[in-house]
Amino acid sequence: MTQLTVELGKHPLEPLSKEEILAAVAILKEEQQLSAADRFVSVMLKEPRKEVVLGYSAAEPFDREAFIIVLNSIDNATYEAVVSLSQMKVVSWKHVPGVQPMIMLDEQVECEEAVKASPEFQDALARLGIETPELVMVDLWSPGNWGTEEDATVRLARPLCFLRSDEKDNGYARPLPLVPIVDLNTMEVLRVEEYEYTKIPMQEFNYTPDRVGPLRTGIKPVEITQPEGPSFTIDGHEVEWQNWKFRIGFNAREGLTIHTVTYQDQGRERPVMYRGSLSEMVVPYGDPGPIQNRKNAFDSGEYGIGQLANSLELGCDCVGYIKYFDGVMANSKGELMTIKNAICMHEEDFGILWKHTDWRTNDVEVRRSRRLVVSSISTVANYEYGFFWYFYQDGNIQFEVKLTGILSTAGLHPGETPKYGNLVGPDLYAPNHQHFFNVRMDIQIDGNDNSVYEVDVVPEELGEGNPRENAFYAKSTLLETEQKAIRDIKLETARYWKIVNDNVKNELGQSVGYKIVTGENCFPFASKNSSLLKRAGFIKHHLWVTPYNEDEIYASGKYPNQHIGGEGLSSWAEQDRPVANSDIVVWYTMGHTHVPRPEDWPVMPTAYIGFMLKPVSFFNQSPAINLPPMPKKNYCSSAVKTDGCQS
């Protein structure tokens, strides 16, 4: 074994460094005698067991490990490896039969090149009168699994194709009725499916400032400055801000992750959440036509949100005093790949946090809110998704997804009217679709033993105790097992769920906890017998609760690409394990239904979807009561003299 030396990460949850990734790859290549046919799907930190992390002491050593997924393109075989960087050796190597790992970034580039170079594809273009294959955009789409032998045995791609007028043009304005079927292991075009559009859309729809015509004027600059620097402090990937302390993580599949969240309360460091992440997201389309009806993209498990992250830019993606974190990973050859500024962190003003005017004395007290923003943005073909974690001064935590980018478009087949979507241009159609996001939260309210209660607000029964017929109260129901904890939003009862530690009470004798405040949501429209719901069972319900299991990380299972279904969260919950007063994981699914508008074209204004974790009896009173007044010269009107601001 070649002698390697590498400085190891100083905390069990510190993401793998560049040196650690290169060392792990080198060790695995040498010990397993890997060849050029062995492609590195992902190289990431193998997070230690929870008890190791929670018991961590800087004075004690811990085993530093990398988890690696390898695909052999000749044998079409997937392997999982664990490399100990402390011992500098492979400690585990196993074949995982019958699965396809997520699509590698290199494969997307290679697939486009292979399709453009294919004589069969060029002939199909010629039949459409297109003589510029170099201007064709080939967007790699996973094929799903429809029960065929090919789906089960070949690593496939089913790209959608579009035509640019030049290399800077918005090609999504010109979808083509061609679908090449590609073997990703051999990069061979197996066949080209040819369909018919009434007319290939040809009108240009661009969005760059040099092509949209006169730009509006009269917009004055808004400056955001922090002359004394930010209020947060950073040690590696550990962050402290306004009583909050947490760690930032990042990997090729999930992208941004949040770890070991605690709140400093009257001298106590109180745990709130051990790990939070986007577990999976899936985008099902509602068009039954032959080109569109297979579109069910698992953007995390099939494509990798992390490996598709943007390099963020000051003043565009983030504004203010910014701290960036790079995303470090490996490409399919095991070479280092760094996404510069993959994560952005900054503070921002968030309006009034609290205010009261005493009209008798004319005294006014007002405090402005600020929040800490940790974000990452990924481009998945035509769509952009921004993932934002917000931490607030009043103890709230929020997760939000911002959806923007470009619609996935199609032409109209002969005799077709846009029943399953809307026209966004002449002969140009955008199909209806949905976006589902599942967030996995390993909750840790003042310790590992937590419970979930469903709270419904219900009217009091009519009678002597309710003489004005106006009374209502909050009814709490303990969710004791996994099956009982499969729940849905109910607007009629203003339903919410609170996660509590019944073993810890506040000064009022109430169990400490946090509640999930839901935002926009929906249900899937696909049939229960559809391939979608077999593969993405987690989208059938909004709330799931499972006991902690370090191997249960992804709501769709570890390998959703081309999987027939039946794996992941819905399968685990069938065990009906107890989840009361124990170490639990809470999974929240939220959905956005998108019926496209002309106003969404040629680039979509951002849509927002998310939820909030709000303290419920976690504190004895408002934790924001001790915020100091803001300086009048910066924030308050000079016409008001008694407004709670400092002179």
Give the number of domains.
3
Discrete helix count: 9
**Number of separate strands:** 30
CATH class categorisation of the largest domain: Mainly Beta
Strand % is 35-45%
**N→C terminal distance:** 69 Å
CATH architecture of the largest domain: Distorted Sandwich
Give the rounded overall mean pLDDT: 95
Helix content percent band: under 10%
**In this structure, how is the largest beta sheet organized?**
19 strands, antiparallel
CATH topology of the largest domain: Beta-galactosidase, Chain A, domain 5
Structural category is mainly beta
Rg from Cα: 27 Å
CATH superfamily of the largest domain: Copper amine oxidase, catalytic domain
* 3D shape: globular
Flag low-confidence runs: 635-647
Short description:
InterPro entries: Cu_Am_Ox_Cu-bd, Cu_Am_ox_TPQ-bd, Cu_amine_oxidase, Cu_amine_oxidase_C, Cu_amine_oxidase_C_sf, Cu_amine_oxidase_N-reg, Cu_amine_oxidase_N2, Cu_amine_oxidase_N3. By secondary structure, this protein is mainly β.
